[in-house]
Every structure is written in structure tokens, then in C-alpha cells.
Inverse folding.
């Protein structure tokens, strides 16, 4: 039931890259192209009626999908790519030409090399050079890196010739960025509780510790946030999270009254 498939050729995880995956594929363009072409071929064959068992998938996966009895429209969906400007040096022009051979629907470019990880500033000039090449084709191009708000997103779209941008870290604990506004600490904490409850309802089998990083992101930018983050790390479920936040709010109210 997905609307598309996005292939991550930019993952900076060292263990992934060391095995030749993620951003490691920038060093092996022929393999990267084979992967993209294989995915596109699989999508086409699926849309034409090929069964899951015919794809050679493990029996347990075929069984689990079949048991859900999903009514999914078989259609050819877009295949896109996310990548970086290079592995240990900037090679985005040549890399973009390789990727364009696979005719992806979109290429999203993070303006750092794998070696940089998330340090330093994103190189939007390098993104612009790639965008100039990509826009000669039917493939869309998105830029990524250091987009702080909607205003900076609009500025980068105009200045660097991309079709749009991706917002990553700036949205952590701050979904209001997409509405172009800032939230006060009370709204942030209310949404943190709501988020925790959604997490438990959607992923009842997952341990709550995977939610804790999100709680920490909400607890930023206001007085007492550091102490609150420490307490939230002890929460084992949404109920405990709500109790900790409610007590924090009461403490703030008491200080205000005094």
C-alpha cells in the first residue's frame, strides 16, 4: 500500500557503509545502479501481477503479508533516491550522472560527504551544481542540510535551483516547523504526551526506550528543560511520561505564583 520506494544511498552509519551499503555505495556506482534498476524492475513486475512467492521471498514473509489480506492496488509506483555529495570527497556531479542512468523519479541530496557525517555546514553550492545537471532531465531534485525553518527552505529553493527541500534534524521535537511557527513549552509538553500515547497504540510490542529520544527532543528551549529530560529518561510508558510532565508543569506554576 505504499505510494513509492525511496532507496537510501546516503546512510552514514559506519557499520552499514563499511559493508558497502548506504553512502558506501557512492564508491561502487555500478552496484548502486544495479540495485536501483532491480527495485524498479521488481515494482514493474509486481504491478503486472507477479506473486510474492514468485519473487523468491522467504516463506514467512509471504505468509505474513498474505495473512493480513490487504487489498492493495497493483500499480507501478515511483522509485526515488536519497544520497550525499560524496564519500570522503565531493563527487556529486559524476555521481548524479550515474544515478540519472536509472531514471529515478527523484534524487534527494544531503550536502555533506559520509566522512563529514553531520558536522560542518552543508555544501549547498555542490547541491546546486548537481541540481543543474538533474534538471535537464525529468527527475526531480530535492536539497537537504541545515534547513532551519520554512523561510530558509524557501530561500534555498530559490537560490540553489532545487525543486524542494527535506527538513530533518530541525523537526526533531518541533513538528510546528512545518506550520511556520514556534510552540511554547506547554504545547511542546502536551504534544510529547500525545506522541508517547500514539507510540504505544501503534507499536504495542516495542519497548518504550525507543520513544525516549523523542521525549528528550521535546524537552528543549525552556527553563528547567535539562532536569525534565533526565526525569523523562526514567519513564517506562506513556502514563509515567504524563505524570512526570504534569508534575513539572505544577512546579512551574508554583514558581510563577510565588
Amino acid at each position: 500500500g505504499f505510494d513509492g520506494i525511496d532507496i537510501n544511498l546516503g546512510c552514514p552509519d559506519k557499520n552499514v557503509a563499511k559493508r558497502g551499503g548506504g553512502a558506501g555505495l557512492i564508491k561502487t556506482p555500478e552496484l548502486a545502479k544495479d540495485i536501483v534498476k532491480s527495485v524498479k524492475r521488481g515494482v514493474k513486475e509486481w504491478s503486472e501481477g507477479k506473486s510474492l512467492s514468485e519473487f523468491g521471498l522467504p516463506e514467512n514473509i509471504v505468509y505474513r503479508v498474505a495473512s493480513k489480506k490487504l487489498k492493495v492496488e497493483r500499480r507501478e509506483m515511483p522509485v526515488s533516491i536519497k544520497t550525499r555529495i560524496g564519500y570522503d570527497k565531493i563527487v556529486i556531479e559524476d555521481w548524479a550522472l550515474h544515478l540519472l542512468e536509472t531514471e529515478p523519479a527523484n534524487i534527494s541530496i544531503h550536502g555533506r560527504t559520509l566522512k563529514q557525517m553531520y558536522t560542518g555546514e552543508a555544501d549547498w553550492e555542490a547541491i546546486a551544481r548537481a541540481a543543474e545537471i538533474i534538471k535537464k532531465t525529468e527527475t526531480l531534485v530535492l536539497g537537504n542540510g541545515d534547513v532551519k525553518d520554512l523561510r530558509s527552505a524557501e530561500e534555498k529553493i530559490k537560490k540553489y535551483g532545487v525543486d524542494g527541500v527535506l527538513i530533518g534534524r530541525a523537526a526533531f521535537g518541533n513538528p510546528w516547523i512545518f506550520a511556520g511557527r514556534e510552540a511554547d513549552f506547554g504545547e511542546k509538553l502536551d504534544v510529547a504526551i500525545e506522541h508517547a500515547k500514539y507510540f504505544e497504540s501503534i507499536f504495542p510490542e516495542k519497548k518504550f526506550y525507543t520513544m525516549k529520544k523523542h521525549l528528550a527532543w521535546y524537552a528543549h528551549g525552556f527553563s528547567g528543560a535539562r532536569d525534565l529530560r533526565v526525569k523523562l529518561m526514567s519513564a517506562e510508558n506513556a502514563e509515567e511520561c504524563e505524570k512526570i510532565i504534569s508534575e513539572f508543569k505544577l512546579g512551574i506554576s508554583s514558581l510563577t505564583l510565588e
The chain has ten helices and five strands. Strands lie at 5-9, 79-86, 106-113, 140-144, 164-166. The two ends are 55 Å apart (CA to CA). The longest helix spans residues 238-257.
